[in-house]
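Name: Antibiotic biosynthesis monooxygenase
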Amino acid sequence: MKYMFEVRIKEGYSAEDYADAWVRASELIQQAPGARGTELHRKIDDPNTLIAIASWDSKAARDAMESDKDPRITDIILSAAPFVEIRPLGEFEDPEWVVMPPGGPNREH
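Structure predicted for Antibiotic biosynthesis monooxygenase:
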């Protein structure tokens, strides 16, 4: 499953500052059973808007991490909180199918 949220960077702070906190928290979160990686993307033409995507084996695995979260993760998140606005986008199932057109991204040039 995927857990996604939008991050809006407040004036006086930068996406790079947030990315530093993101990486530090993600390194700890990824030690939890069922964690499958994280991604942080910057919105085109809006460097102060990011989308964060965390991949998990299941919602239960993510919920287990949340219920027994390493206090260092909370400290990192709280340290960045005054400088960002976070809007959860939700939890999404992995796709039941992936459509790749012929000659898609793995095609030879």
